[in-house]
Design brief:
By secondary structure, this protein is of the alpha+beta class. It has two domains: 99 residues, no CATH class; 153 residues, DNA integrity scanning protein, DisA, N-terminal domain (YojJ-like (1, 3-Layer(aba) Sandwich), CATH 3.40.1700.10. Helices cover 54% and strands 12% of the residues.
């Protein structure tokens, strides 16, 4: 028996080529990617149940000859193949979204100063945390959040700590909802975000998540965005990413996380496109600046940087 197995093994090795080896590696890679995507999802439990049923049915049919059951399974197999995309629809959608996030930045991405945006966010979040003002700020990255921005009020304003604090100040028209930031600007406010697909278990009643925290988890499960949450009850600062909520952050920790996770256009595209967007952004900022009177401009050019005397003051 052992010699026969050994001869069959040697026969397979003789027929093994580079093409067949590449074929085996590709099939193993596909199974690995599929199982990785299904990990920690409801689809993994469904897959285990399907495999158990297939194994039991195959084992029974191999031991006992059941013609009627064989006929039934042969006719049901095409229906099961059609049902697989329906059963695993959420997992397939998430996988396609991950593939769609790959690639370079589009040509219309606006250049912005990453350090200035992070400083503005940390300063506003610190103030709201001290005064226990609830807030939810979502930072768009590669996945577009246009469908969620349409549910709120479009602003497209330059960010500042005062603007963010005023938006989330209690009883103001825009405080109920999320702020979406796109390309370094406050794009929309009072936006409605999706909740998590599955309930989130908590160890104690004190750890129960409010609506803002659940919305942050829900939007980061569906997109690659970052969500900053300030608790209205405790003032706790949290950061959500990929459906995982990191609670109890200090302003310094929040700054460190944003510096590592916030992706700006200049970090993942071509340099000449980056310079083009930077010049366009500077031109837009100049257009948004308040106009200067012609005589004031002439006076500034004449005076220059010379310090003014007491009589001039």
């Amino acid at each position: 028996m052992l010699s026969q197995w050994w001869q069959e093994f040697l026969f397979l090795l003789e027929r093994l080529t580079w093409a067949s080896l590449l074929d085996i590696l590709l099939v193993a890679l596909i199974f690995y990617v599929v199982l990785t995507w299904l990990q920690n999802t409801q689809g993994m439990a469904i897959l285990r149940g399907v495999l158990v049923v297939v194994f039991l049915v195959g084992f029974i049919l191999s031991v006992i000859n059941l013609p009627a059951l064989n006929w039934l399974l042969r006719n049901l197999l095409p229906s099961l193949l059609v049902a697989i995309p329906v059963i695993f629809a959420p997992e397939i959608r998430q996988a396609l979204e991950r593939l769609g996030r790959l690639g370079f930045a589009p040509l219309w991405v606006r250049y912005y100063d990453k350090e200035r945006i992070i400083h503005t966010l940390v300063q506003a979040v610190t103030h709201m945390s001290r005064n226990r003002i609830g807030a939810l700020i979502v930072l768009e990255r590669r996945t577009s959040l246009g469908e969620y921005a349409a549910s709120g009020v479009l602003l497209d304003a330059l960010p500042s700590p005062e603007l963010l604090i005023q938006i989330f100040y209690p009883n103001t028209p825009l405080h109920d909802g999320a702020v979406l930031m796109r390309q370094g600007r406050v794009y929309a406010a009072a936006c409605i975000l999706p909740l998590p697909e599955h309930p989130i278990p908590t160890a104690s009643p004190e750890e129960r998540l409010g609506l803002r925290h659940r919305a942050a988890i829900g939007i980061t499960q569906r997109t690659d965005a970052l969500a900053i949450v300030v608790s209205e009850e405790t003032g706790t600062i949290s950061l959500a990413q990929n459906g995982v909520l990191d609670r109890g952050l200090t302003p310094h920790q929040l700054r460190h996380r944003l510096e590592g996770q916030l992706v700006t256009p200049q970090s993942w595209d071509f340099p000449f496109l980056r310079r083009r967007r930077q010049r366009r952004s500077l031109t837009q900022n100049e257009d948004m600046a308040p106009p200067v009177k012609p005589m004031q401009r002439v006076w500034d050019n004449l005076v220059g940087t010379r310090p003014r005397s007491k009589e001039e003051k």
